[in-house]
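Hey, quick one: can you model this chain's 3D structure?
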Amino acid sequence: MIILGIDPGSRVTGFGLIQIEGRKVKYLHSGAIKFAEGEDFFKRLKTIFDQGLSLAQSCNPDVLALESLIYVKNVSSLSKLAQARGAILSGILHHKEIPVFEYAPNLIKSAVTGFGHSPKESVGKALQLFFGKRDFKTTDESDALAIALCHFLHSGSIQKNTRSLPC
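Sure thing. Here's the predicted structure for all 167 residues.
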């Protein structure tokens, strides 16, 4: 089973892919979609959709896990985050319908580090202990990988059917 974790954002969207093989979790790929400062918001949404579709087509995930929306004081920021989240979901689900799971930020941190209020740096270090040395270019990338791992740890079932990643 291949799990795609997404940390949605309107400026940076992180993604992380892991593969479940029996009781083992294998790191496959992670990265981030970044945008230049001042780039048109609606152009970013189109790129987020396209990148989500491309990611789904090349890696063909079985499950999508993403961070739930968080409370923010700035309604405009929340609106943009929700639209970016919708764009990436639309792109991925346009390829094929797969189950989607949401996890609260504190649950993700707790699953990966053992403490729900861990700083982002602790999440990255915990992931390196789990998957080996990785050079995460952004915390969005490491957060997305943590989301995928959180899904595995909370899914409660290990799939017997495994396959190799096509990308």
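One thing worth noting: The chain has five helices and five strands.
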